[in-house]
Amino acid sequence: METVDQDFAAMLLPYLKYAGDGAELTPDAELRALGLDSMRAVELLFAVEDTYAVVIPDERLTDATFATVGSLWTVIEAELGTETRRSA
Length: 88
Prior knowledge:
By secondary structure, this protein is mostly helical. It has helices at 6-12, 38-52, 69-87. The longest helix is centred in the C-terminal third of the chain and has 19 residues, at 69-87.
């Protein structure tokens, strides 16, 4: 992931209180440094699951998943693939 999907970035920004409006997110941007705290992480989780119609399994709900923009997107992409296989 060299760039961040613009729709994903737009979904993330409201949960990143230090990112600023229109901030350009990179895959290695640290979510905590951008203002993602535990309460916002829970809200972000709900937004991700609603937006992408996936369920992030409990074992993926780790600090590593929410470490960077790229790590979160990697988990979403993996779950999107899982959902596609389940519905096939």
